[in-house]
Amino acid sequence: MAPPVQVSPLIKTARWSALIVGIIYGKRRYGKNHFSIFAENSMHLECRSFAMTLSN
C-alpha cells in the first residue's frame, strides 16, 4: 500500500469551511419549523388510526 499523501493546508481549510457552512445552512433551512410539520403529520396519522380502531 502506498504511503498517505500530504494534503495542502488550503484544501484542508476549504473542506472544513464547506462542512461548517453546510451545517449552518442545513440548520437554517431545516430548523424547528421543518421538523415540527413532520411531527404534526405523524400525530395526525396516529390519531386517525386510533380513531379507526375505536370505531371497529
UniProtKB/TrEMBL annotation:
GO molecular function: proton transmembrane transporter activity
Subcellular location as annotated: Mitochondrion inner membrane
Membrane-spanning segments: none
Signal sequence annotation: none
Keywords, in A-Z order: Acetylation, ATP synthesis, CF(0), Hydrogen ion transport, Ion transport, Membrane, Mitochondrion, Mitochondrion inner membrane, Transport
GO cellular component, one term: proton-transporting ATP synthase complex
Gene Ontology terms describing biological process: proton motive force-driven ATP synthesis
Quaternary organization: F-type ATPases have 2 components, CF(1) - the catalytic core - and CF(0) - the membrane proton channel. CF(1) and CF(0) have multiple subunits.
Family the entry assigns: Belongs to the ATPase e subunit family.
Function: Subunit e, of the mitochondrial membrane ATP synthase complex (F(1)F(0) ATP synthase or Complex V) that produces ATP from ADP in the presence of a proton gradient across the membrane which is generated by electron transport complexes of the respiratory chain. ATP synthase complex consist of a soluble F(1) head domain - the catalytic core - and a membrane F(1) domain - the membrane proton channel. These two domains are linked by a central stalk rotating inside the F(1) region and a stationary peripheral stalk.
Name this polypeptide is given: ATP synthase F(0) complex subunit e, mitochondrial
Species in which this protein is naturally found: Sinocyclocheilus rhinocerous
